[in-house]
């Protein structure tokens, strides 16, 4: 049996197992699919005239999210939610979503594996499967499960087909914002950056025209405003202090449920100040990492050396300095690591290993120990703290690697000559 056949067998086993675990593990890791994705998309299919029961249970679903009201996601997020209905006849909407994510993964996996002759691609494929398995159902039953294969395929196409690569990354960004980090890294690291940028602009203009034509002009960028107004989500690294204050039962510190955003958040002393500071801090962190990348690109760093490190650095900046820290955010780190392994597996196996450890701790927190975490018990709080510490450590590690990216000597000499002239 060829190793490509073995990979595809493993692919099927992993995806079936993860899909089933979504129904077996505690705390409903597939809950978002039937609680929000299904009613949101049902409202789109039927207009605002949805079933009274759904309208009562999910008031936001009585509107077309992203069009008649602002949405936490960019407008293209509704597309996979609608496409999933094509498979709902098989066993309901939840299974339909799992099938859709599996098909998206299969397309990106086929591109990644190719003919199975490249050892780097073979290693990267095994890492991705291991990561999906270790992270568990939260990586499948969320929108991020759609954007990750798009991000992997788009990144792999950046050099040979930058227009296609840029288009895939732009589409992924209009589904969930995080691939914007990969677009930024591509614009900095790819020589044909205008092609990447042009593809992104073309996709954005098309989405804007579509939304405006439906009467949603005032909500076109609602997903950005919603993020800036959010509180501190329980799992975010910045929330760690407030989490432990809640564990210690300090007055004024607690974990609570936000009915509007449908997520658990923390509060405590000076929380409004921290909330106000985090968005500017995130912008500064992203600009700082991007600035290092710009300098390295200007001095002649190659795409192979620069892009994976810069992409992962920007993605991790989005995670470490974010007020939101949903467990599915950990899926983001897989895409740049897959690219890194394809390019240079000997330098990327250590970050890949740490990423798997992070995925394991994420699974332990959600869904396995999540109920206890909501009760502010020490053990799950410790698990989450370790997970967040490992994410911060990986960020620091990658930034150090980015600073150490080698500069091409010929380009460096040319730049020096231009300076002296």
Structural features, described:
The protein is mainly α. The protein has helices spanning 3-24, 31-46, 52-57, 78-83, 88-91, 93-113, 119-135, 144-156, 162-173, 180-189, 193-213, 222-228, 240-247, 271-298, 303-320, 334-368, 370-374, 378-403, 409-420, and strands spanning 232-233, 254-258, 263-267. It has one domain (3-420). The chain has 19 helices and three strands. Strands 1-3-2 form a three-stranded antiparallel beta sheet. A hairpin with a 4-residue loop joins strand 2 (254-258) and strand 3 (263-267). Mean pLDDT is 90; it is low at 48-61 and 413-421.
Question: Could you give the distance between the termini?
Answer: 62 Å
Number of strands: 3
Indicate the overall shape. globular
Give the mean pLDDT: 90
Low-confidence stretches: 48-61, 413-421
Strand order of the largest sheet: 1-3-2
Largest sheet: 3 strands, antiparallel
Strand content: under 5%
Number of helices: 19
Can you give keywords for this protein?
421 residues, mainly alpha, 3-stranded antiparallel beta sheet, 68% helix, globular, disordered C terminus
Secondary structure layout:
Blueprint: H1 3-24, H2 31-46, H3 52-57, H4 78-83, H5 88-91, H6 93-113, H7 119-135, H8 144-156, H9 162-173, H10 180-189, H11 193-213, H12 222-228, E1 232-233, H13 240-247, E2 254-258, E3 263-267, H14 271-298, H15 303-320, H16 334-368, H17 370-374, H18 378-403, H19 409-420
Antiparallel strand pairs: 1-3, 2-3
């Amino acid at each position: 049996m060829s190793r490509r056949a073995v990979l595809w067998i493993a692919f099927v086993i992993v995806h079936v197992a993860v899909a089933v675990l979504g129904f077996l593990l505690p705390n409903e890791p597939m809950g978002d699919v039937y609680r929000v994705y299904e009613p949101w998309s049902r409202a789109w299919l039927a207009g605002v005239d949805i079933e009274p029961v759904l309208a009562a249970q999910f008031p936001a679903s009585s509107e077309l999210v992203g069009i008649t009201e602002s949405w936490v996601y960019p407008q293209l997020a509704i597309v996979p939610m609608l496409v999933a209905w094509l498979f709902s006849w098989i066993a309901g909407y939840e299974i339909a979503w799992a099938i859709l994510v599996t098909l998206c993964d299969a397309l990106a996996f086929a591109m990644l594996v190719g003919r199975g002759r490249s050892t780097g691609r073979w290693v990267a494929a095994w890492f991705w499967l291991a990561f999906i398995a270790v992270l568990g159902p939260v990586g499948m039953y969320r929108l991020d499960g759609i954007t990750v294969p798009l991000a992997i395929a788009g990144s792999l196409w950046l050099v040979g087909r930058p227009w296609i690569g840029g288009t895939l990354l732009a589409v992924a960004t209009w589904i969930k914002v995080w691939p914007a980090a990969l677009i930024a890294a591509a614009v900095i690291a790819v020589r044909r950056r205008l092609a990447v940028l042009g593809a992104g602009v073309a996709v954005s203009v098309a989405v804007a025209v579509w939304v405006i034509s439906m009467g949603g002009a005032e909500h076109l960028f609602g997903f950005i405003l919603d993020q800036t107004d959010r509180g501190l989500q329980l799992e975010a690294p910045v929330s760690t202090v407030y989490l432990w204050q809640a564990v210690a039962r300090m007055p004024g510190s607690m974990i609570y449920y936000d009915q509007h955003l449908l997520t658990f958040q923390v509060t405590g002393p000076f929380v409004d100040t921290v909330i106000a500071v985090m968005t500017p801090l995130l912008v500064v962190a992203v600009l700082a990492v991007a600035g290092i990348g710009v300098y390295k690109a200007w001095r002649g760093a190659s795409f192979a050396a620069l892009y994976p490190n810069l992409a992962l650095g920007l993605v991790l900046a989005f995670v470490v300095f974010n007020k939101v820290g949903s467990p599915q955010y950990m899926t983001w780190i897989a895409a740049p690591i897959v690219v890194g392994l394809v390019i240079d597996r000997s330098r990327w196996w250590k970050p890949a290993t740490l990423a798997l450890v992070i995925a394991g701790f994420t699974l332990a927190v959600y869904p396995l120990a999540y109920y206890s975490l909501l009760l502010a018990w020490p053990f799950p709080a410790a698990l989450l703290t370790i997970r967040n510490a490992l994410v911060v450590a990986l960020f620091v590690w990658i930034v150090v690697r980015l600073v150490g990216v080698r500069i091409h000597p010929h380009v460096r000499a040319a730049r020096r000559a231009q300076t002296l002239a």
